[in-house]
Design brief:
- This protein is 50% helix and 12% strand.
- By secondary structure, the chain is mostly helical.
- It has a single domain, classed as Rossmann fold.
- It has a three-stranded parallel β-sheet, with helices on one face. It has a two-stranded parallel ribbon with strand order 1-2.
Length: 159
């Protein structure tokens, strides 16, 4: 997928890829075939906020928690909703953040070929767009959502 990119573009890309323990070895092998100089494959990440802070852009699925974390950490993102997700909920999650400009949706069917790598290089080269995406994600976020839910629950229970 990334092989079609020019060497100067590949040399500027740094990747941290969380893949789960069962997929670590094949994922590392797949990345070795690509000329990305700086790649770290991790089975698990203990500190997602730190990883999001490190990233210029995150490329990930669109589960509810992931989309919430991206918004709260103001991380620009390229979301690839899981097509098999029940009730197409990942697509709906991705659309919510995308509609405000905090994310871009790339359907899984478009992952083959050069579309995603070319788009990654394009978006990384546009600092204004990344800043705008970050601002919009943060604007949409609900950092106090837990407190709001607790307050509503207490009101219902306690009257």
């Amino acid at each position: 997928m990334f092989a079609s990119l020019p060497d100067d573009a590949l040399s500027r890309i740094e990747v941290r890829h969380q893949c789960g323990k069962a997929h670590q070895i094949p994922t590392e092998a797949a990345w070795k075939e690509v000329a990305v100089n700086r790649i770290e494959v991790m089975p698990f990440v203990d500190d997602m906020p730190a990883l999001y802070a490190w990233a210029d852009v995150a490329i990930c699925r669109a589960g509810a928690l992931t989309v919430s974390e991206l918004a709260v950490t103001a991380t620009p993102s390229i979301l690839v909703p899981l097509p098999q997700a029940i009730d197409d909920h990942q697509q709906k999650n991705a659309e919510a953040l995308s509609k405000v400009g905090g994310a871009v949706i790339v359907p899984q069917a478009e992952l083959a070929g050069d579309h995603l790598p070319t788009f990654i290089v394009e978006i990384l080269g546009d600092a204004t767009r990344l800043e705008r995406m970050s601002e919009q994600a943060q604007y949409w976020s609900k950092p106090d959502a837990t407190q709001q839910v607790v307050a509503i629950a207490q009101e219902v229970v306690c009257g």
